Please model this.
Amino acid sequence: MSLIDRSEAEALVEGRHGDPFSVLGLHRTAKGNRIVALVPDAQRLWAIGAKEVELEQVLPGLFCGTWNEPLYRLRAQNAQATWDFEDPYRFAPVLGSIDEYLIGEGTHHRLWEALGAHVMTHEGHSGVHFAVWAPNAQRVSVVGSFNSWDGRRHQMRRRGSTGVWEIFLPGLVPGDMYKYEILGAEGRLLPTKADPVGFGAEHPPATASVVRELDLHDWGDGLWMKGRAKAQDVHTPVSIYEVHLGSWRRVWEEAGRPLSYYELSSQLVDYVADLGFTHIELLPITEHPFDGSWGYQPVGLFAPTIRHGRPEEFAAFVDAAHRRGLGVILDWVPGHFPTDDHGLRRFDGTALYEHADPKEGFHRDWNTLIYNFGRREVANFLEANALFWLEQYHLDGLRVDAVASMLYRDYSRSEGEWVPNCYGGRENLEAIEFLKQVNMLAYGKSPGIMTVAEESTAFPGVTSPVHRGGLGFGYKWNMGWMNDTLRYFSRDPIHRRFHHNELTFASSYTYSENFILPISHDEVVHGKGSMIGKMPGDAAEKFANLRAFYAFQWTHPGKKLLFMGQEFAQWQEWDSGAALDWALLDAPLHAGMRNLVRDLNRIYREMPALHWGDCDPRGFAWIEADDAERSLYVFERRAPGRRPVVVAANLTPIERTTRIGLPTAGSWREILNTESGHYGGANWGNLGEIIAEEIPWMRREFSAEVYLPPLAVVMFTPD
Model:
């Protein structure tokens, strides 16, 4: 025991030494060089180099001896086996001073390159470097099957005042499972934790992190990446297919498993491209323990879920979409995280990522925790995560979930149940600053991307640049339009004349933000029914109403978003545990609905008048907005130097022949009619053409007699 202090030896063996690297490994002492090694299941231990020296066992599993060579290996023996291995405690640190400085400052924008588990060669040996932030822990260890999940074996090195712990473990390989065992701030052993910056995880319900290599995919999307800024501009067509990968399609011949990323690379990508959408938006695919959360309660923010494959397979999916000209948007969840013991909750025994006060740190709507956006390391963790997905996986955008819940301290809270900001107000100033920073970093470091806010209040300047006082998002979901339009189309047509403004009111704020018009998963779940189920009337009227709804959505200013299954009018509301009812496409009405969505996307992309002014007030004008008695709407979409499109909607079950105002004389071609037989309608229309005469009407110099089928939308453009 003379070569090592007994109290230190006992602390090591008991797993409560705060600085194991100061004792373990090779150290110069006044009595010569000393090796100390902790190998709990060894009965004898030798240091091996040019010579072989047996070390003395000073406590069970702890060995010590003198050693005068610069390098060594260890040989252990017990009653069952003898094995040789490299001592992790003889390796120098991996993290450098720049990493330490940036982590401490909260500005390490590529945090994933410093923290997490990285396969590497260090000092001539291959293995894995682990690093994790746990500033209040008394001890942190890496545990896994490679060390019998024994936290005494690989106790980590604390890096100064950063709160980061690290260790290099030689011999580990991709696919090894691991967790962190943490002795908390109060000296209590915590439940083992998954890696907050882990790049992979076990299949749920198992919860360990898995060592995964990044950069294994050979990207071939250079052409897309070069041109995507133009493809996502406010003046270009953006039409988004929102999808939950686990329930889009399943392989019933194999126990109903969901598709792999590789299978989705062909099946989903081909399907979406054929329908003419410009983007795929994924419900959260960051690793999450509970299927029923749809990914909205993530634990592994840096790991694409293993439910569909490994990280390189997810990269291949994104690449395949890009090669077909499709952007990929990730639903990103920085607004809350689950309380699962293996996650971020009280990660080092303290409220580290969350607020200590439940009035700030607990979200009662979802029984989840709220990030402490005012702590620089937490904000840095999330900011770096946003950049990780954009840079590492070439994603084209982030749709930020539940922004409203982040912006307000009193969100879903009654008086006395929330903590005001430093000025006594309800705004969450730290979250606001965080969102601004995310947007500045995302647009600054990943040119051509888009960020989208799901924000349901009238918070000002969501899509205004940060330097002009805004939050800096590229787009915002137009929840007001969605609610009003759904409410209107759900009404019996006989009552619509009393609610005419539900379709016109949105024009009073259409250009206050850069809007996306969403019919998302939230509208077809939890008893809300399907889109076709919301429509009034008999079966034929339901389909006519829904066709008119989609045509109104595609011609109204704003980018478009439709959730999977709604393109063919699935009857059942969405079930995340099943798959879409693809058999419906054998029925003409359902196939016709999909044909309509395909043609709406085609015309939307081909006609600049229908997309150029989505976010520009010069692109829209009402021709008739006040004919409530007939539930008639007529408006014009336009783009500089391009042919206009005039849209006429008859939203009653009564066919009408009426005169509408037009901006120019001559022949106007009927480019889409939702009552076409191709879409499942009765094929009533204008025989492909109307003639505008010099008869002033509806405040226009020209007009034409048109036939408007019942419950239909018709579009015209100058021939």
In short: The longest strand covers residues 125-133. Residues 490 and 535 are 5 Å apart (CA to CA). The mean pLDDT is 96. The chain has three domains: 6-86, 97-211, 237-520+560-584+600-608.
